[in-house]
Each structure stands twice: as structure tokens, then as C-alpha cells.
Amino acid sequence: MEDPELEAIRNRRMQELMAQHGGGNQQQNAEQQSAQENAKIEAEERRQMMLNQILSSESRERLARIALVKPEKAKGVEDIVIRSAQMGQITEKVSEERLISLIEQINTQTTKQTKVTIQRRRSVLDDDY
């Protein structure tokens, strides 16, 4: 009387636990890793295709140059551009000027304020007690 779908989920979870604790089969482990790698590669390809549709060639070049220096910042800008396109906020290709303004907006939002305080220690030789 048990649900076959629930049983399949339990079996899958049990196999995952066994694989994590070394009780799994090495062949299955290698297959799972290759499947995960393939999924990551496919997701990255889809991401690049979306960016090619959204960004103009100049803005893609600028984003590639940013990625050379600060890959995490470029990834964040890509995420924002893709999210905006999915929400319908971007209807035409993003020009280089628009990308620059978007990057400037992100910079102003994420700028860290550093405050330096200097605490002077009194020396033994100071005469103003």
C-alpha cells in the first residue's frame, strides 16, 4: 500500500548516503560525477547563449575584460542582466553604454565604507599628564 514514488525517492536517497560513506559502487560514483559535470557544462552553455542574445558584441567584450580582472563581479553582472531579461525589463540588446551604467549602479550599491581610526598610545616620556 506504499506509494511507489515515495519508495523510489527513499531508494535514491539511500544510494546517495551509501555513496557518501564509501559504501557505494565506484562505477556509479564516477557516472554521477560525469553526469554532474555534464549538467554544469550544459548550464554554462545555456547561460552563454542567453548572454549572446541579450548583450551586444561590444558589451560582451567589455564583460569579458571585466571577467579577466574580477570574475566574481562579471558573474554578478551577468546574473543581473539575465534576471532582468527573464523578468521582461530588457527588451532589446544591451549596449555598451547601458552595461557601463549598470556596472556603475552595482559599484555604488556594493561600495564598502572603510573607516580608519587612529588611537595614539601615551608614551612614558610624555610630559602632559
From TrEMBL:
The keyword DNA-binding applies. Residues 14-41 are annotated as: Disordered. SUPFAM superfamilies: Double-stranded DNA-binding domain. Belongs to the PDCD5 family. The keyword DNA-binding applies. One of its GO terms (molecular function) is DNA binding. Residues 26-38 have a biased composition (Low complexity). It comes from Zostera marina. One of its GO terms (cellular component) is nucleus. This is Putative Programmed cell death protein, putative (Dna-binding apoptosis-relatedprotein, putative). It holds the Pfam family dsDNA_bind. Keywords: DNA-binding.
